[in-house]
Design goal:
Two copies of one chain form a homodimer. Chain A is of the alpha/beta class. The first copy, chain A, has two domains: 13-81, Arc Repressor Mutant, subunit A, CATH 1.10.10.10; 89-198, Rossmann fold. Chain A contains eight helices and ten strands. A seven-stranded mixed sheet of chain A has the order 6-7-5-4-8-9-10, with helices on both faces. In chain A, helix 7 links the parallel strand 8 and strand 9 (176-179). In chain A, helix 1 (13-31) packs antiparallel against helix 4 and helix 2 packs across helix 3 (50-58). The first copy, chain A, starts with 12 loop residues before the first helix and ends in a 31-residue tail after the last helix. The interface between A and B is large, with 112 and 111 residues. Chain B binds a DNA duplex through residues 12-15, 38-40, 49-52, 54-55, 57-58, 62-70, 223.
DNA sequence: CAATGTGAACAGTTTCACAGCT
DNA sequence: AGCTGTGAAACTGTTCACATTG
């Protein structure tokens, strides 16, 4: 029945978070002319173990060839497919401060399937401003400008405005929220919420620095943990690029 | 011997990532005059289960009182202590684009123990600019301006510059790195690296939206998962604050 | 014979249920 | 009676080792 791909059961969250990393690496290798990758090489470049790479990729179906490795281009396609990057995801960003702008401008963030359809703020100084082809409006002006339902809402407001933003986004049909504000959101259970709390990241780092915890080099969301990798002992020439 | 606190073994990473959330809630409750909190209430506000709250807090030692709950103020102090927020953590930010500025300005990010000591970039247009009391300089000018070793380096550069930034930060003594660039860093094994990859967050959301995965409402780094909480069915009055 | 795919052992977290204080 | 602290059970994810395949 099914065309082939997508093995069967659900893919564990840590695996889902690692797949985009493998994809990025595979894409880069393909770009530089390497057509096949081994789990070993992928592991070294992603900072994980080879066994983990194989278990992770096995969730995509029989993607590799024994004795040879994985086809880089096919890997990229396969991962795009399970991540849903091929679909169309209308995105609204609420809160056009520095963080909101960073998200709008970051290369690779609003790429491929993630289509910006609205920018919301309340600061009179930036209302009406045009950014990246979109005019910043208040929430009540947004519906008139939207052709489709919102799929993903990004909350880049101060904590005090986050819950309201979430309510409005849900009302606009957003089924998924990405919240950068340091607050826990109250949402109906069917809404997927993902939190990125920058101050927590710092605190986790300082905690592990304090306790000198050996496995502290863990990933935030991605679950990666670059273990003692080939490290060039501090580049010779010191011309800081930023 | 030991004054009391800090039970014994290491605190599991998921717990460490949740502690700041409990702290925020406890601080807010204390501020509004509530002196004690139950694990139940904390759980409801943090979007986790009460059992998890108790297990988590048990790592801080005997902090609660049976039959009563936890003392809010004491909770705040206890968590500050294990997170290392009381210590002094000199921070350098590399990459003063929108993201870097967002981090500099975000309330609650560079608070308490996290002390900004340097801003690095290479763009001639912003070199020499004064932001938040710090002049943006190139890496080679930084050592002359630093009184202390760097503890935490924040990488907010494009991916192409991230590895170089990491090398330089390590050379300046940074033992912990927070990397926002979409790259895996090669660092000596004793360096703690934490990754926040914004594009991965979006992809994880779309994947779970696609597969309609029931427990998709997971936290990025924090491991929180707000489960069907008391949800006010979309605020009545629609005045979007951003 | 190199490298994947995977069952089985292992490790780490969460949940449960209740003993133990206050 | 109420609520914490915690062993034990359940669950989830990782590592290991190797059978399997091209």
């Amino acid at each position: 029945m099914a065309p082939e791909r997508q093995r069967s059961g659900v893919i564990p969250e840590p695996t889902v978070a690692r797949l985009p990393i493998y994809q990025r690496i595979a894409a880069e290798l393909a770009r530089t002319g390497q057509s096949t990758v081994s789990s070993e090489q992928l592991a070294a470049l992603a900072g994980v173990t080879a066994a983990k790479v194989r278990k992770d990729l096995a969730h995509l179906g029989q993607l590799g060839t024994r004795g040879t490795g994985y086809d880089a281009a096919q890997l990229v396609r396969g991962i795009s497919e399970v991540m849903g990057v091929d679909q169309d995801w209308p995105v609204v960003i609420v809160g056009i401060g520095n963080l909101g702008r960073a998200l709008i401008n970051a290369r690779g963030f609003l790429a491929r399937g993630y289509r910006l359809v609205g920018l919301v703020d309340t600061d009179p100084r930036i209302l009406g401003t045009e950014i990246s082809g979109h005019t910043v409006v208040r929430f009540d002006e947004l519906p008139a400008r939207l052709a489709d339902k919102v799929a993903i809402g990004i909350i880049a407001t101060p904590a005090s405005a986050a819950q309201d933003a979430a309510d409005q986004l849900v009302a606009l049909g957003a089924g998924s929220l990405l919240n950068f504000a340091p607050t826990v959101l109250m949402t109906p259970p069917q809404i997927r919420v993902r939190y990125v709390d920058l101050s927590i990241e710092l605190q986790v780092l300082s905690h592990f620095a304090l306790t000198d915890h050996p496995d502290a080099g863990a990933m935030s969301s991605v679950g990666i943990q670059p273990i003692g990798l080939p490290w060039t002992p501090a580049a010779e020439e010191r011309g800081a690029r930023s």
